[in-house]
Protein: Hemoglobin
Amino acid sequence: MMNTPENTLYIRMGGEATLQKLVTLFYDKVAKHPDLAPIFPDDLTLTAEKQYKFLSQFFGGPPLYSQEYGHPMLRARHLPFEITPTRAKAWLACMHETLDQMELDKQVKDEMLSRFTTTAYHMMNTPE
Structure:
């Protein structure tokens, strides 16, 4: 399916409200995950805000992250954190569980998971 400004994944997923819910549910899981919590701050407020802004543009919505922080440079920004294959899988498991909680069209969910999977494995920077 070709994305047009009216048909981006951001729009098809439900836009701002859906993305806010996704980020909230997701970081509730991250905060409790034994493999992920050690590399995240205790207060996830700013992290969740940045994730929301990034995902907005990642899925074709407003470029909120770039407007505030410049180019995302995902890999470079994640280099200070030890992202192992186990952590990438844990991150994806939390996201998969979050998406399962959301009332999303299966095609939209599958498209989101595909993009998350590619990105999560691209962020790995440390062997086990």
